[in-house]
Structure formats: C-alpha cells, structure tokens
Amino acid sequence: MSVSIALIPVALTLRIVMGKKNFENFANSMKVKEPTNFQNELEIVRTVRKAGYDAEKWLGVIKTHIAGDKQFMTWEHEAGKWTAIFSKLDSTELVKSFMHSINDAAGRNVFDSTDVGNTAGSVKQLASAAQLLSYPTNFRDGELLFRTLKEFGVNPLRQGGAIICKVEQSVLTFRQFDDHPFFVEIQNAPDLKKIYEYLSDVDEDYKRCVQDMVYQKLMQRAAEKKMTVESEQVLEDNSIVIMLNVRGE
After folding, report:
1. CA–CA separation, 230 vs 246, rounded Å?
2. CATH classification at residue 224
3. Are 19 and 136 in contact (CB under 8 A)?
4. 79, 96, 130 - which closes a domain
5. How many domains does the chain have?
6. What is the pLDDT along the chain (249 residues), one digit of tens a residue?
C-alpha cells in the first residue's frame, strides 16, 4: 500500500494571523490618501499617461506604477473625490517627484494641497509614526527564528523572552505572547520598505527551515516504521510530495 504525503510550506498569511477585521485596519493604517480635483477616470488616465506613467483598471480602481514593476499607487473614488492612494512605505522623494510630474502634466495643481512639499512631508511623518507600531509575523518557533536570523548574519540577541537584532540602522525586536505568532517592533527605520523586504526574505528562509525540520522528522518516523520511499518530488511552490511504501507485518 502506498501513502502520498504533501509537505506544504508552513506559513500563515497576515490575514489569517490577524483576523479579517484587524487585517483591514492594518491595511488602512498603511495608506496615505491625497484628494485631487480630477473630475473623472478619463482625465486621470490622460494626465497620468502624459506624465509618463501607466494607468490601468485593476480590481475596481486605477493602478499606476511609480517605481519598477512592483511598486505602485492607486486612484480611488472616495467621499466624492478622486483620491491618490500611496503607501507609507513609499519614500518622500518618490511621492514628491510623482506629484510634481502629475501637476506638470495637468498644467495645474490637481492635489488639494497647494504645496506638494508639505503634502509629501506628511508621508514622512506618517512613516515615522508607523515605526513605533508592532507588526505580526508568521514566526511561531523562537529557536527556529533565532537560528534563521543568525544564518542571515545579523547576530540576534536574547533579552528575556524577546529576540533583538540590528539591520543597518534599524533595530528589530521580536516578541511572542502565549502561543501566538511573534510580533516585530521596528525602531529607527529610515526606509521601512527595505525592512519589509528583509523580513520577507527571513520569512522565506524560516519556512524552508520549518519544511526541512518536518521533512527530517517524517523520514525518521518512516524509518522507525520500516517504511520505504517510493518517490520524492519537489513542486513549483517548493513543497515536497513523498510516496511511502507501507509494508504489512
């Protein structure tokens, strides 16, 4: 008899970790909204494209890439106004440059604020405030998290139940309450986007460590039960499918 066992990467999405309501609140807290005097979608699309950016319908809003293929903002209709939605992770300089370009293409100030510098400055203030918050992670195993951080070369330290490490100018403190996933506190982060990219890399490596640990335990138990491996396949998502042969006594 053969048994197929799929080792799926063990990671929870932010939505699962936080719950729907908390996730939505978190997502909204990461937005920076700048109302405009655009009258309709057509005017937005024409102006944005004239400024040299793209403007495409996406999930009921208009999406515009502001840096590369992954970094974008959206145009959404809120409270009777077309509003530019940025992320707190977007740099002040990037937002200022984008808003200036849109104003130049439109031939007027399309944003409610007449001073783009002050408007973009609010992004910096909001990002600074965000650094004082704690964010949920997918990490549950403290020993595994500590090992993963150490392998990344950031020399983590233990302080009571917390794990602390320094990444460039930023200090990351991982705390766990009861059996819930760790939260990370970010301090002194001049560029939150880089910190999120770093945490994403750590998360991927952590998942690989978890998968390897589960794999080793499975193979050990299979050997104890005198099972033999018929086949082993690594899928596109890096999960592993193992076919075990269970021999009768």
Report:
1. 10
2. 3.30.310
3. no
4. 130
5. 2
6. 233 323 222 223 344 344 455 555 656 667 788 999 999 999 999 999 999 999 998 878 899 999 887 788 999 998 899 999 988 777 788 888 999 999 999 999 999 764 544 444 444 444 444 444 567 777 888 888 898 888 878 889 998 889 998 887 788 888 887 777 888 887 776 666 667 677 777 777 777 777 777 777 777 877 877 777 777 776 666 666 777 776 654
